[in-house]
Amino acid sequence: HGKRHRRGGVSVFDTNHSTQMQQDATIEIALRKADLERELSIMFQPIVDVTTGETVAFEALARWKSTHLGEVMPDQFIRIAERGGLINRLTVILLGKALAAAEEWPEDIHLSFNLSAHDLCSPDVMLQIIKLVSEANIDPRRIDLEITETALLHDINQVREAIRMLKFLGCSVSLDDFGTGYSSLSHIHALPFTKIKIDRSFVQAMNTNPASYKIIKSLLALSRDMGIDCVIEGVETEDEMRLLRQLGGNIVQGYYFSAPIHQDMIGAYLGACGLEPVRHHVLMS
Ligand code: C2E
Ligand code: MG
Ligand code: MG
Ligand code: MG
């Protein structure tokens, strides 16, 4: 809540802050008015096992084409939906769409879906998630639920219970954007995650900052020792891929392989994989 401080009649209201606040308010109003069933859609980004060259999963990434505002990216509208108490509705709509899409995929391909920590703390939404997953025509063991680390400042006991429930259902549960939160290590210590996703900031800095390289190396060793899976996010270049291979980072996701693609392109994408198992730039755009 922006308070106006006046000094000698001149407003010292932070204009950048105010612009951001106005933008957020505009987005929140548009979200409340939106026909979300129609305006929300999903893109799917491949997650690749580089030891075989095969795509093992697709991560569902929300897209919102607002009638009033045009295309809005999830980094913006998810945060605003969470703060405005709208995220639960979005989650249910998006999960329904993602599951419907994944039902069309080959049976060995997994679906990764981002949950908000707010979802885990709402018993009502948890029930709806469980209902959607168990009624979908897809083995829950093919579903991976990702929870962003920076959002985990919630009731840790409630989050733990929710993760247990999702695992009991058969899903795996990932700690997303690992390394960006306040207490990454205590999160994997206190919560029963089955996977971590190393944040792309470490990959981006790998060439210029030797510490990043060593951190990725240590995290790979840590996850191996703990017996949990590890995905490396945001791999963009050949150089990065070469370094990661040396480190034994086998499960990767990033523009180097493919940007998020439309559901209609998944068949073509998977077909192209069989022919050319290393890169699929043809389908990027
Ligand atoms: P995330 O879950 O960490 O998803 C990865 C983000 O990194 C995606 O951004 C993806 O497009 C982007 N990305 C993938 N590869 C690369 C790369 O090589 N380089 C770069 N620079 N970026 C790459 P996107 O789609 O804009 O989503 C942003 C965030 O919004 C997601 O981060 C996730 O936290 C959240 N989000 C997206 N969809 C949903 C959703 O359905 N529900 C919830 N709760 N959150 C979502
Ligand atoms: Mg994610
Ligand atoms: Mg991430
Ligand atoms: Mg993220």
TrEMBL record:
EAL domain ranges (all copies): 24-274
Gene Ontology terms, MF aspect: cyclic-guanylate-specific phosphodiesterase activity
The protein's name in its UniProt record: Putative signaling protein
Organism: Caenibius tardaugens NBRC 16725
Portion of the full sequence shown: 83 to 367 of 369
